Amino acid sequence: MDLYHKDVVSIMDFSKDDIEGILDMAEEMVPYAKGEKIKRTLDGKILGNLFFEPSTRTKLSFESAAHRLGCNVIDVSEMSMTSMAKGETLADTIKIVDAYCDVTVLRHPFEGAAKLAAKFSDHPVINAGDGAGSHPTQTLLDLFTMRQSKGSLDNLNITLVGDLKYGRTVQSLAQALTKFGMNITLVAPESLQMPKDIIDHLEENGCHPTTKVFLEDAIADADVLYVTRIQKERFPDPTEYQKVAGTYRIDNALLENAKDDLIVMHPLPRVNEIAPEVDETKHAKYFEQAANGVPVRMALLNALLGGEL
Ligand code: NCD
Fold first, then answer.
1. Mean pLDDT across the stretch 61-68?
2. C-alpha to C-alpha distance for 70 and 239, rounded to whole angstroms
3. Which mutation among 138, 163, 165, 286 tests ligand 1's pocket best, with the greatest number of atoms within 8 A of CB?
4. pLDDT tens, position by position, 194-247
5. CA distances (Å), origin 148, targets 17, 62, 214, 261
6. Is the pLDDT of residue 155 over 90?
7. What are 74's strand-pairing partners?
8. Residues with Cβ within 6 A of ligand 1?
9. DSSP letter string over 29-73?
10. Would you say 78 and 95 are in contact if contact means Cβ atoms under 8 Å apart?
């Protein structure tokens, strides 16, 4: 695996070997991510964290990952606080940040923003979510969490539920799952089904997803239930959101029909898709999943910036 100076725009930028290499390295990073051991492999480097959409986990875990490796962070969280408010283009802003940093992490409301940023940067750019597009580093931590719980990623039954149309995490994840021969079941309201280009990609890669409307029909065989929030902010018409809000809710009654070792995942934030009572069950993995953002992003930053292990 040689990821030195690579851009991370889409999960498809990685081979299966690259992904497994990052997950192996992330495993080694766990005690350092928890502060039990100290590692300063990126001492003196600078990460630019540009978040032009709300974020808790992604922004803070990149920041934490950088600090744990001795890498400094400079950041902007509001477009209105940059010269873009004066009319500067994203391309110009990115060129400037690139001159000040060794790596840029970008979250932006427009699909394609990270690809554009990569074009205008000499240093690596990491896509931390571009509109309804992709969220490749979330996929890495999702796969890490599954592998940690299940021992292996091969041939699992995974049910993806919720907003498959606008959910960038679930689209990036679906693309990655084809590399591991997983059996995918898609559960979404009619208006929020997985986009055709992603379905075509799955089919071309030998993965033939099953589509279901009722979650009750998709629970019994699942090894992993991956739940997503309905992406209210991406609906052009708020009345369309109202029609589908609250369609699915995971609670203990539903989980009675699940396999004993089913894991429930969610990229978070949740609104009301998972009842708090589920948090207390052995199925709940979403808080561990969020914590895994730190070792996984440490592994990625270390690989992109050439830190010596
Ligand atoms: C997700 C995102 O921003 O796409 N959150 C995250 O990064 N953990 C999911 C969401 O907002 O629903």
1. 98
2. 47
3. 138
4. 999 999 999 999 999 999 989 999 999 999 999 999 999 999 999 999 999 999
5. 17, 21, 29, 13
6. no
7. 48
8. 57-58, 129, 135, 138, 168-169, 229, 267-268
9. HHHHHTTSS---TTTT-EEEEEESS--SHHHHHHHHHHHHTT-EE
10. no
On whether the CB atoms of residues 291 and 298 are closer than 8 A, the answer is no
Residue 1 reports pLDDT greater than 80: no
Backbone phi and psi for residue 265, each to the nearest 5 degrees, phi listed first: -120, 160
Tokens 């041939």 — which residue? 155
At 96, is the pLDDT very low, low, confident or very high (cuts 50, 70, 90)?
very high
The pTM for the full model equals 0.97
State the distance from the centre of ligand 1 to the C-alpha of 291, rounded, in angstroms. 14
48 contacts 75 by C-beta, under 8 angstroms: yes
Lookup: tokens for 156: 């699992």
Check: CB of residue 136 under 8 Å from CB of residue 9.
yes
Crossing angle of the two packed helices 16-33 and 136-150, in degrees rounded to 10: 80
Please state the φ and ψ torsions of residue 263, each to the nearest 5 degrees. Answer: -110, 140
Ligand 1: which atom is nearest the Cα of residue 229? Answer: 12
Total length of the chain: 309
